Amino acid sequence: MLFGLYVGLLYEPDPQYYDIPADLNRQAVVQYFTGYLLETALAFDNIFVISLIFTHFCIPREYQHRVLFWGIIGAIVFRGIFISLGAAVVNSRTWCSTSSRCSLSTPARR
Questions:
Q1: What is the C-alpha to C-alpha distance for residues 80 and 36, in angstroms, rounded to an integer?
Q2: Which of 2, 21, 37, 94 is 20 to 30 Å from the Cα of 27, by its Cα?
Q3: What sign does the dihedral 38-41-47-50 (CA atoms) show?
Q4: pLDDT tens-digit profile of 75-94?
C-alpha cells in the first residue's frame, strides 16, 4: 500500500518538461489519489464480503486459503473467457456494436 503512495508522489510530472499547465498536473495527482483510495476501499470491502461468505457457509479455517485461491483463479479464467467471447461477438456482428453505441450515447446526451 505504501508503494502505491510512493509511486503517486513520484509521478508528479514537471509542467515545464511536458509543456502542460500546472492545473492539469494537479488534476492528474488528484485523480491518481482518488483512484487509489477507491481501489483501497473496494479491497477492504472484498475482504469483508469474503469473510461473510466463509462464515455463512461454515468453511473451516484450514480450507479457507484453498477456497479463496481457487475462487480467484476461477474469476480470472472466467473473466478472460467472457472478454474473449464478448470481443468475438462484437467483431463478428455489426449490430452488437451499433446497439451498444446507441445504448451508451443515449445517457451521454442527457
A1: 24
A2: 2
A3: negative
A4: 999 999 999 998 888 788 77
